[in-house]
Amino acid sequence: MRFSRLLVPTTKETPNDATLASHIYLIRGGFIQSVGGSGLYNFLPLGKKILDKVRAVVKDELDKAGCQEVALSFVTPSSLWEESGRYEKYGKELLRFKDRKNNEFVLGPTHEEMMVNLVRQSVKSYKQLPLNLYQINLKFRDEIRPRFGLMRGREFLMKDAYSFHTSTEDMQREFALMEDTYKKIFTRLGLEFRVVEADSGAIGGSGSKEFMVLADSGEDTIVVCSECEYGANIEAAVAKPKTYDANSEIKIITMNALYDDGESKIVHFALPLSIELQDVKACNALNANELIECEESDTIDTLVVDSSLEGIDSLSANHKLYADISSVCEGDSCIHCGSALTYTKGIEAGHIFQLGTQYSEPLGCNFLDENGKSVPMVMGTYGIGVSRLLAGIIEQNHDDKGCIWTKASAPFDLHIIISNIKDEEQVLLGEKLYEVVQDRGVDVLLDDRKERFGSKIKDFELIGVPYGVIIGKKLKDGLVEFVTRDGLVKEEVSVQEIESFLESRF
Ligand code: ATP
Ligand code: MG
Fold first, then answer.
1. Ligand nearest to the CA of 349
2. Is 486 contained in some domain?
3. Which ligand has the nearest atom to the CA of 382?
4. DSSP secondary structure code for residue 218 in this structure
5. Mean pLDDT across the stretch 181-204?
6. pLDDT digit string (tens) for 453-494?
7. Which residue has the higher pLDDT, 159 or 311?
8. Residue 83: what are its φ and ψ, rounded to 5°?
9. Given 63, 76, 300, 349, which is the most exposed site by the fewest CB atoms within 10 A?
10. How many domains would you assign to the chain?
11. Is the distance from the beta carbon of residue 143 to the nearest atom of ligand 1 less than 6 Å?
């Protein structure tokens, strides 16, 4: 590709709403463009190219694992969501609308209902199972606070896969296969990541794991063991239980629990004095949507006591239950090996769930087993935030000058810069190298613009192609420069050797 023909509107200006490196550089590097409405982006040629590369890695590994790609309608009839019971439950993130005939629809934020509907119409017998179907398609979630560019958009690209099985064992086999497949995907993309135990959120089900791209800017706090493999989102983390006795001090926290149906109630939580309440665990214990702070109240109607206090506390209430509602602290002991736990930050890039029959039962997605009995299929569901991955790659790979794309995600393999387009010798060499490497299948960008050298270098640094060749003033002495974007390491190579040098590199 010739830079002179490329639509890549790079800019020096940092968007006002941008704080994360990935957000700043994806905009400044001309990869994406905000559409005005928050959380909506256009992908410009380079952004689209990277998205396609990431998507291709995801597709390749899934296909190798035996998954099949489909494409589901983005506009989803509300009736399917009513069948599953999620129409109300999903809350305001679900964008609902009507067509001219007054039929109600939603824009799919996730596609369990749609995929179950596809399968219940086309699969009847155990002989057709197992099945793992996926798509790489748009999702829409009317996020309350869209932010950080591609990290938390409202419209975004997700790979969502759904598997269907005759038994829980077979679903668990597939779940393990998907965990393995995801590890291959994230490794190929050049990411540093960690697989952690997770809370299952609005998708439901039990036994879920998240794939966290490690980055200080990540929105998720993850608890990791300093010795063994254990890792968990703080929302789901557990530590070795501490022991308390009847003399241990207890604190009571009062909160207002909000429910799907708009109801709310005052709830009290009892914990050991030194332990913090974990909101997500607390919500799960009550099946509530959200907890908000409220004034203390004297009447204790509903009381949730942390399980570490079971058999010790002497509290009473009309409704009393025990549940793990405690936050794990740094320094707590690992439940597996007893070593110290620490916190780190991650970006949730993938999430895999063991669903069971949570959707197949209400939607009547059944199959006839070997005895001719009709039973619901056992399901798993597996997501990857494909567009979020672009942000994740840059959060992990950038410097103060711009992006440093990993090999598998880079928009080009090589970036050749002709410093001065008026210098015939430079142009001749640039054009020749461009042809030669291109013929060998290297995806190369040739900066043949009538721009100042300084701005060409700035664009090279900002765009972040992993390698560059600078044809500049030293050509007079028979030398060009080979630059590795990561670290901006420069090597001088003689003109006679540059072709074979590039051949050995690419
Ligand atoms: P989060 O906790 O970050 O809101 P989630 O748990 O709601 O995400 P899932 O329902 O698990 O998301 O969706 C699967 C994947 O889709 C996530 O792991 C994430 O990579 C991606 N994703 C979710 N929401 C967004 C968003 N608003 N913008 C971009 N990617 C997203
Ligand atoms: Mg998730």
1. 1
2. yes
3. 1
4. -
5. 90
6. 999 999 999 999 999 999 999 999 999 999 999 999 999 999
7. 159
8. -60, -40
9. 63
10. 3
11. yes
